[in-house]
Amino acid sequence: MTKKFLLSENDIPRQWYNIVADMKTKPLPMLHPGTKQPLTVSDLEPIFARELCIQELSQERYIDIPDAVREVYKIYRPTPLVRAFGLEKALDTPAHIYFKNESVSPVGSHKLNSAIAQAYYNKEQGIRHLITETGAGQWGTALSFASHYFGLTLKVYMVKVSFEQKPYRKAIMNTWGAEVLPSPSDTTNAGRKILEKNPVASGSLGTAISEAIEVAISQPDSRYALGSVLNHVVLHQTIIGLEAEKQMEMAGAFPDIIIGCFGGGSNFSGIAFPFLRHQLTKGTPLRIIAAEPSSCPKLTRGEFQYDFGDEAGMTPLLPMFTLGHTFQPADIHAGGLRYHGAGTLVSQLKRDNLVEAQNIPQLETFEAATLFAKTEGIVPAPESAHAIASTIREARIAKEEGSAKTILFNLSGHGIMDLAAYAQYYAGELN
Ligand SMILES: *Cc1c(COP(=O)(O)O)cnc(C)c1O
Prior knowledge:
Elements: E1 4-5, E2 15-17, H1 41-44, H2 50-57, E3 62-64, H3 67-73, E4 81-83, H4 85-91, E5 96-101, H5 112-124, E6 129-134, H6 138-149, E7 153-159, H7 160-165, H8 167-175, E8 179-183, H9 189-197, H10 205-218, E9 222-224, H11 231-250, E10 257-261, H12 266-282, E11 287-293, H13 298-301, E12 303-308, E13 317-322, H14 344-351, E14 356-360, H15 362-376, H16 384-401, E15 406-411, H17 419-426
Parallel strand pairs: 5-15, 6-7, 6-9, 7-8, 10-11, 10-15, 11-14
Antiparallel strand pairs: 1-4, 2-3, 4-5, 12-13
Bound molecules: pyridoxal-5'-phosphate.
């Protein structure tokens, strides 16, 4: 039986898929934080490259992937689709389990899919400097490589607690030439204000975003870049599902259930939206599950309302499921899932009952991660382990029901940079 479904370079999709075109209920507009009016391209232009602002508000179904972006994708794409026979056997389930392996990217996660596109559009427009923030470090890592590739400088504001706890993350960003600063820093008004109040502040994603935006809008030839939540990021990530669609065809199957872990929604949307298109346009039955941490349960426990994307309230107001922009999640190891809100597209789809959500306690995710590593040979990122745990829950239900369901999940990244978390788990120090 075939284990791996591989495409050739030629099969790398030539367009991304924009689900807005097929949504029956369109998402509510994003609002300008000052005027409270629907956001326009020109409102966004001082912050992001023009083409990204256009994509952010686009309703076009397909958007061309530039050749130069496809060329860089060839370094690691198409990524494999794998039938998880080992995991199926260990669970003794009649379910057929497949995963899309985004961990093969040189930076170890799916985040490079959008980083390459964002760096490219900035370069094309003549921008010379990018500024971003990073929490756990994956987004900063991906954008470091992409910025270097397109000849842009990159400054990364890294949440101070991660900066101190994860020296290898800083080292890998430095390898690609990025400058990494702990946030809060004394290089911005936002940072200095916080340091005045508390000189030993450990930082937050909200503060780091505020610092990065402040620098981007005050310096010439500079823009800000964000690695999740926004529509243009989700758009770029649909390359995952578009490839997986062809690969499931090769496998002669179509998923009954699709599962992705959920931080701001980019990898989840990336794998799910191209399949959801079949349900939206042809009524093909499909369950789509977002797996989030119990400690940051925006989709299962949050409220749908307009909220800011950052703690300081500098970003546009987004209509989304949120725990409130000042929510402080517990310090779990899946750093990429510690975000207070869900992107506007997934939020609307959840309201329309087209997307389900499950929240999963940290210990269950590490149990799932180690079973996956033992049976499939890949140590998953703590974030991806949420998708694996949810897959295992569904595979057990399939066993009880005696049904040969087809489950597809996204392996958003590997955990080789997160072994300290595994060490704590083995030492019994996690809760
Ligand atoms: C950042 C990250 C996530 C969470 O972000 P999404 O935008 O929700 O995908 C999940 N997995 C990995 C490996 C990440 O780096």
